[in-house]
Design brief:
This protein is an all-alpha fold and 193 residues long. The protein is built from 9 helices and no strands. It has a single domain, classed as Orthogonal Bundle (Tetracycline Repressor, domain 2). The longest helix has 24 residues.
Amino acid sequence: MSKKTKENLKDHIAIIAMALSGEIGWAHVSMAEIAEKAGLTLAELYDVVDDRSDILTLVGRLIDRKVLENMEGALDNETPARDRLFDIMMERFDVLNEYRGGILTVLESFHYDPKQAVISCPHLCRSMSWMLEAAGIEVSGIKGAMKVAGLTALYIKTLRVWRSDESVDMAKVMAALDKDLGRVEGLALRFGL
């Protein structure tokens, strides 16, 4: 199987999983159902993922890739870093909206299965690292790790606003993100980040 074909299969699995999640809730989605809806045998699905956490990793990678593709060439390096990051994060919320029903039930499931949330943390931090990279913000070393941690916390906080903002323009999300980016920018300047 070519690398491109394997990536297409992974995206297909992620999309199917989020569709099922939106229909019946992530807590009720089984690997067998994902395989069936994806047109795979359970053995074929096993060759791609180990468990449901891997499915969520595929969803995260799909979202990351879409954001990176959509933002390719869209940012001007002369624009302040905060504005570039704002645009990237708003694009991320736009992409999340494509899978809104499924994502919402995944987030709900974390209340009942906190292990899944903990397992997702490194993947979320990796995603935020990519978002910072896309904005042209340095992520190496201790300072970079602090930026990744800060953006991850900001993203989780804004995600809570996104959950309740069903408006097309996502005005509440934009306001919360802008306000929190301002706070983070102030802290970053204070600490020399």
